[in-house]
Amino acid sequence: AQSVTQLDSQVPVFEEAPVELRCNYSSSVSVYLFWYVQYPNQGLQLLLKYLSGSTLVKGINGFEAEFNKSQTSFHLRKPSVHISDTAEYFCAVSKGGATNKLIFGTGTLLAVQP
Amino acid sequence: GAVVSQHPSRVICKSGTSVKIECRSLDFQATTMFWYRQFPKKSLMLMATSNEGSKATYEQGVEKDKFLINHASLTLSTLTVTSAHPEDSSFYICSARGRGEVSPLHFGNGTRLTVT
Questions:
Q1: pLDDT digits (tens, 9 = 90+) for B57-83
Q2: Chain A touched by B7 (CB under 8 Å)
Q3: Which end of chain A offers a freer environment for a tag, N or C, measured as fewer CB atoms within 10 Å?
């Protein structure tokens, strides 16, 4: 079975500073990896995904993530954050396929301070 | 881009009543829809997976008779919380996936259910 671990429940950072949100996964099979963002009282919005190919994936809002198979990690990064990036970020894993479910990590609250 | 509409966004009901939540895919055919429940400051817990025209598959520990899921068409799935109790108060989120091996999930904006 797949599982996802987000090591940090909350990450405070100052505006315009870089940030990295950590995500590790475990799976005995090849997986697809995702990062989603959730703003208060809203659903989830896809930031980026890794399906295959290049291990460096670029997403929306200036975020990127790198798939590292040897370390089973998929950390999310942004070189310079804005106040508007304050939100909950979820890493997720899926075996793929239309009916295969998405397993979410516990989330990391990115708190950007002025 | 793909849009999933979830309605209502908020609902308050009395204990013992039933509440229906709708999830619609607006510009694509959703062959599979997922229903999640999110507790405060927690991750999303998958409740069930529904495929159009067939019975939903419930996750372990989720009462199928309490959380009725219907996926009657390729654009609509409903979750009915029957005989709701205060402990059912939560944030419910639906998501939909189109056809294809690598179709991503598109999420609704969630429904805040409060049972008094």
A1: 999 999 999 999 998 888 999 999 999
A2: no
A3: C
- Provide the shortest C-alpha distance from residue B103 to chain A (in Å): 7
Out of B100, B103, B107, the one facing A43 most closely (by C-beta) is B107
Chain A residue with minimum CA distance to B101: A97
Contact yes or no for B101 and A41 at CB 8 A: no
CA distance A60 to B54: 35
Percent of chain B past pLDDT 70, that is, above it, reads 93
- B104 closest CA partner among A71, A60, A75: A60
A46 touches chain B (CB under 8 A): yes
Q: Are the C-beta atoms of residues B12 and B112 closer than 8 Å to each other? A: no
Higher pLDDT among residues A30 and B81, named by residue: B81
Q: Give residues 61 to 90 of A whose Cβ lies within 8 Å of B.
A: 90
Helix (H) / strand (E) element for B68: namely strand B67-73
For A34-74, the pLDDT digits (tens) are 999 998 878 889 899 998 889 999 999 999 999 999 999 99
The residue among B57 and B98 whose pLDDT is bigger is B57
DSSP state, residue B42? S
Distance from C-alpha of A110 to C-alpha of B21, rounded to nearest angstrom: 30
